[in-house]
Specification:
- The protein has 33 residues and is mainly α.
- The protein has one domain.
- Helix content is 61%, strand content 0%.
- The chain is built from one helix and no strands.
- The two termini are 24 Å apart.
- The mean pLDDT is 78.
C-alpha cells in the first residue's frame, strides 16, 4: 500500500490541477460524487 501511495497522490494532484484549469476557463465540471 505504501508503494502505491505516491502514485495516488500524483493522480489526485493532477486531477485537482485539471479541475482548477477547467474552472479557470469558465467551465464548471462536477467530479465530486
Amino acid at each position: 500500500e505504501i508503494d502505491k501511495a505516491p502514485q495516488v497522490l500524483v493522480g489526485k494532484t493532477e486531477m485537482d490541477g485539471m479541475i482548477a484549469y477547467l474552472q479557470g476557463l469558465g467551465i464548471h465540471v462536477k467530479v465530486r460524487r
